[in-house]
Amino acid sequence: MRKILLIIIVIMTAITTELKAQQTDLQHIEETVNYYLTGLVNNDAKTLTKAFHPTATMKWIGDDYKEVNAIEGLTEGMDGTPHKEKITTRVVSVNIAGDAASAQLEIQFPTFTYIDFMHLLKVDGEWKIVSKIFYTRQESK
User: Fold this and answer.
1) What is the pLDDT of residue 140?
2) Cα 76 from Cα 33, distance rounded (Å)
3) 101 - beta bridge partners?
4) What is the pLDDT of residue 82?
5) Cross-referenced SUPFAM superfamilies, in alphabetical order (predicted)?
6) Any bridge partners for residue 94, and if so which?
7) Any long-range contacts for 39-44 (C-beta under 8 Å, 24+ apart)?
8) Which domains, from first to last, does the chain contain?
9) How far is CA 104 from CA 12, 45, 115, 134, in A?
10) Nearest residue to 118 via CA among 2, 14, 36
11) How far is C-alpha 101 from the geometric centre of its chain's CA atoms?
């Protein structure tokens, strides 16, 4: 009976430790994507840049396939003046598997919504966005 109880305690401790680690990773991922969202809404390149690995890519389909360095593409023209129109943001989902994660975000402007799919890696102990793909949905009035 003591052996069974000891095994249960060991298993429960392992599960609790894993859940705490996942929650900590989730909190760090949310912090990372919030650097991106805050920087985007406030037109603040310095804050936005904190979210990305320096070699992160951004890809999308316009008239054709496009690919750029994410930081360069997103911060071009940012001057620190927040957008005048109302913008709402939300984290739709986050999935974590070890040192890799994905996050789906929505950034809603008055006439369109960006739907972002971010891929993150834990690089040197820090969660960084390493790639972003997105779709622009036009909003009907």
Assistant:
1) 74
2) 19
3) 96, 120
4) 84
5) NTF2-like
6) 103
7) 39/74, 39/78, 40/74, 40/87, 40/89, 40/107, 41/82, 41/83, 41/87, 41/89, 41/107, 42/80, 42/82, 42/83, 43/78, 43/79, 43/80, 43/81, 43/82, 43/83, 44/78, 44/80
8) 2-138 (3.10.450.50)
9) 31, 21, 7, 9
10) 36
11) 9
Q: What is the pLDDT along the chain (141 residues), one digit of tens a residue?
A: 667 655 666 565 555 555 555 569 999 999 999 999 999 999 999 999 999 999 999 999 989 999 999 999 999 989 888 888 889 999 999 999 999 999 999 999 999 999 999 999 999 999 999 999 999 999 876
96 token code pair: 């974590």
